[in-house]
Each structure stands twice: as C-alpha cells, then as structure tokens.
C-alpha cells in the first residue's frame, strides 16, 4: 500500500446513528461519510484550543468504546478521538467489503486526510495495533507518536488460546459457530470475551459488565456482525503471511515515530514473549510490561497506560509543559508494572 493509493477525500458530517450505542459522560459521537465508507467517531471536547490530536484504533470485535476509560485521563494533553473501524461499533460495513489490515489502514488514513488532523498521536490495540503500524509506516507524515497495546504482529508459534479467533478466518467457520452458539445468551458471550481478554476479569465492575452485555445484544442483532468478524480475522491471518515490503515486521522497522509498546503478562491472544522482538523492531521504542494485564491494558489499567503516554509525550518534546507529568501522582507504580525503557534509539 503506497501513499499514492490513498488520496485525500472530502469528509462530510452526517447525522449520527446513535441508537443504543453507549456514550459516556463528556463524549460525543458523529458520523463522517466518505466515498465508500462511513466512520463513526467518538470524541471528547478538547480542554483548550491548540492541543495536538490523538486517534485511537480498536481491535478485532472491539469499538471506539474500548478507549472510554483512557481518553479522559489525557484531557488537557491531547484532543482525543477514537474511531469505529468499518463494520464495527456503529460504523457500517465498507462498500467494497475490504476488511483486510490494509483496508482498515486505508480507512484510518482517509479519515485523517479528510479531517486534516494529522500529524496525530496514534494509538492502537491488537488488530488496531497492526493497522496503526501500517499507517505509521506508509504515511509517516500523519503520525507524531505511536502507542501499541498488545499489537497483533505476526507470531510463528501462536498461543493455543488464540487459535479459536484465528479459526474464524476459515470459510464457513463463522456460520458454523453462529449455529452452534445460537442459544448462548449475551451474558455468556461477554463473560467468555472478558475471560479471554482480561488478565483478571473480576476487576470489571457490575456497571461495565451491564454496558458490555447491552452492546453485545445490539451488535448481535446487526446482519453483518459475523461477516465483519470473520473477514477481519481473515485479514489478520493474511497480513501474517505477507512478505516483502508489506510484511508487518518490515513495516515496523520503517516506523519513524517514537513508539510506546505495552504488553500484558497474562495476555492470551498476543504472546508476552513478542515484547522484546517488538522493542527491537521499532527503531525508536520504549517498552512497558504489565505482568498482571491481559490483552486490553487500556481498559484494565488505564491510569498506568495514561502515565506512560504522558511520559512518552514529555520525553519526545510533545508536551508544552513537561513538568506537569512529573508529579508523584502520575508516577508509574513499579509494584504493578515492569520497567519502561528505550530501545533501538
């Protein structure tokens, strides 16, 4: 995917389809229509004028809501927006049915070009980590810093617990799984997802669990839900097998932006052992390890992730007042986390 294949387009705001989508206090949703895709954008009003822009990109099966715990903690530092990728959250499927990592990256780039928000602080989780790595590699002009939470970068030995997700990529599996699980309640499905994604599912509050069940019920009613899941899973598997300049590890080596890597010690989907390889691949990187976190550290330990991001912005000169990040209240609790270190710089 080259920058010449990704022209700027004019985005037009259209009436948001909020429906039953949850909007947390201080958030707002809007839909942005572009030729071939419509993206739902979740945002928080900037604390003041002139703040640098940040864009958050969720993983497979996720949505812009995955960032609702983290975004308020960065108020006053960045102008936060999170995107529902095509076919996820409240964004409808893309007209061309392209759910590949390249297709999702193209959607992110088209939005940033059309909104004229770049360069941004770009943050991605899981599949969104693969997507944002590709964006940073092919359009360095759009990225000030890159933060990756358990990025879905190719692994030779995939964890056994990640195999069922990968199997969704096989033709017919999503349909068979739908039939097999047709009697499962939304509560059962959410408990299964949380057991897979959280290092300790008991930290989820009753309110957060209810919200997740409501969102699961809404999304299961969408006619394209399983298709978007299956095709996106296939896109990840295909990205793992690409060679040459489109190989994700090759693109990681091309990323120029300062990069924060966050890995959880209890991650069942992205192996913790990939952390050191990633730290070596990204040329200007720092690594934060969270021994008790699972696959979604920004939802499990949002304060710790926010602290690491503040330090990244301060150390790279992206904060107007770096001293604001050095108070005792924002220091990382070393009893809960590993060390943050620079690598490859």
Automatic annotation (TrEMBL):
Residues 55-307 form the AB hydrolase-1 domain. Keywords: Hydrolase. GO terms for molecular function: hydrolase activity. Pfam families: Abhydrolase_6 (PF12697). Residues 323-345 are annotated as: Disordered. Residues 335-345 have a biased composition (Low complexity). Residues 323-334 have a biased composition (Basic and acidic residues). This is Alpha/beta hydrolase. It comes from Streptomyces ureilyticus. The lineage of its organism: Bacteria, Bacillati, Actinomycetota, Actinomycetes, Kitasatosporales.
